[in-house]
# Entry
Amino acid sequence: MGKVKLTKEQAEATELYLEHNDEDVEMFLWAHARSNWTGPFYEPLNGLSQGDLARALLIGYEIGPEIKIGDFVDIGLFGISKIAEVTGVKGDTIAINGSDEYHEFKINRVLTDEEKQEEKQRRWWAENGREVWELKEGDVLKDIYQREIHEVVGIGFMGSVMFEGDTSYRAVDEIEIKCTVVCFVEDRKDVDHD
# Structure
């Protein structure tokens, strides 16, 4: 059995109790079994089972990541690392990707804000059957600065794009910065999809 994962607040409450009670572990376990902790300092201990507290005090603990709804986490799932969106939190268990089921996952880490945005973008493109910034002839984009609408008429080397009326291809990283997708060719009503 490994170390118990405590929240930052649970670890602080544990340390505070032990500091003020001469590090009497036996008394702490007795008090925990009998108490419904109140007050801002000890209240986080209410979410901790007697067994987990005993293991934390005797074996040791580590502070687990703060998980909240909307976070994206790297979890260990059947020995494979997967990225999941946290859609529910109940104690040590979480629901992921819109599921109603709560499980205790091995959370490797919480994604940074930048990684979270990248994952949201990857998921959006995947929902539309594309890789990130994979454009096709007939897609319609809007230049967010010039407020112009462009139709993709050619795809070149490394995903470069030619718009209607252009005489050369534009790099996809330039398109990514300046444009947003209005409509994919598959969604257009004004073209024949045969």
Notes: The longest helix spans residues 113-127. The mean pLDDT is 87.
